[in-house]
Fold each of these.
Amino acid sequence: MSKGQFPLFSDIGKKAREILYKDFDYERKFIVTTQTADGLALTSSTVQKESHSVGNVAAQYKYKNAAVDVKVDTQSNIATSLTLTDIVPSLKSIASIKLPHYTPAKLELQYFHEHATFGSSVSLNKSPVFDVSATCGTPNTVIGVEAGYDTSAADFTKYNAGISIMKPDSCTSLILSEKGDLVKASYLYYLDQARTTTVVEFKNRFSENGNTLTVGGSHAVDDLTLIKLKLDNQGNFGALLQHEFKPKSILTMAAEFDYNSIDTNPKFGLSLALTP
């Protein structure tokens, strides 16, 4: 979300989710990004998954209000997208397609207003899938809804609703998703001039009559080093250390173990992102 831009539906509860889940990857990743002065960025990444590795090469070119993205992986899959901003004031459009497997091209539109946003997407095939979302409110309170409809099945794929209440030192969010089956509530609180953040998240799935409570937080040791911890009532404990050892070059180490099952092997992840 850009500075000063009213949030989309996907932004409701986003900050809390980033604290608890972002970069908690338990794989080995190596990423190198290079940029040129004319707006071209090339990114090469390799991910080690158990006994095999996968990789991809991505290119992004930006010119004025347009951005073209192309990604090719080791399975010869190609994903491309074209993003245009401010064709008309406050409107953003995204067109994307994946090859060689037949995946319908998709067109997305996002409209931003001072106190509202509207988003829509459609798959460009004979039986399209439509997705729409909308938010409205004030700088402190955001209310949003989201829905999807599959014309081939003549049925809704999703209908969700959410609300977020923001204060200078906290953010409270509530989301009802998965056609009313899952409720997610989160509370985020900033401490120590936002260098330390605490989060509490509660999830309840009505069809399974079960819930998950997760507590966590992050602390910026300095401008270059970040530590994150989380613990849930299922017995999972996660820790993350992230350090920017040179501008835009970041080393991330993550670990997780189940303290209720000592026979389960801990999970470890290592990511190195370099920008020469």
Amino acid sequence: MGLKEEFEEYAQKAKTLPQNTTNENLLILYGLYKQGTVGPVNTSRPGMFNLRDRAKWDAWKAVEAKSKDEAMSDYITKVKQLLEEAAASA
């Protein structure tokens, strides 16, 4: 299985993460996902009153130095980690 196929598989698995997954972890996943699918940030930063979108933009901006392949690989690793943590605490 290629990296892209594995990435898409884990993107589906990420949807099964428990509700109590922290916002910090969700933002990390968001940034890695966007970097892996779109590449470097291509939009301007949302305004200061749009806190949700601004946090998502910042998470994406934080990983923009990674290549798409690096971001996909890190995304897969992070989803695996979160799923293992969820299983251990269940």
Amino acid sequence: MTHANLMHNYFDPNSVYIEEDFRRRFWMRRHVFKCLLCDVQQVNPYFRQKRDRAGHPSFSPHQKVTVALRMMAYGSPADSIDETHGMSESTCLDTLQEFCDTIIQLYKDEYLLELNQEYLNRLIRKAEDRGFLGIIGSLDCMHCDWKNCPTGWQ
């Protein structure tokens, strides 16, 4: 049922949510999600549709990738996914681990660069030009003054 709802809401030709909604909720365009889904299915059998021991379909590839992306994009804890996607905490954690391992395997050569001194110096200069001194040492930027910072974070 959760797979049917996910498909009806986001992936069917006449889905409930339009492209802009999809992009806002998944932090990517629908065609990028579909390419990502295809890639992880080809590399890792974990993301292919299977049947459980009772012969019922297990979680769909769409569900697994959606859960992993939601956990990363929104910082959703694994135990909260059960309410919306019907997936247990342990299955969510397994799915996230499989997804991350697969993404690294698929894209590391193309997108993950070894940090060298020249590249680091370029990043530092770029950050300093924008007023972020010492940003490489503090990725969360909490040392920077921000006039619109919510009171609770000050």
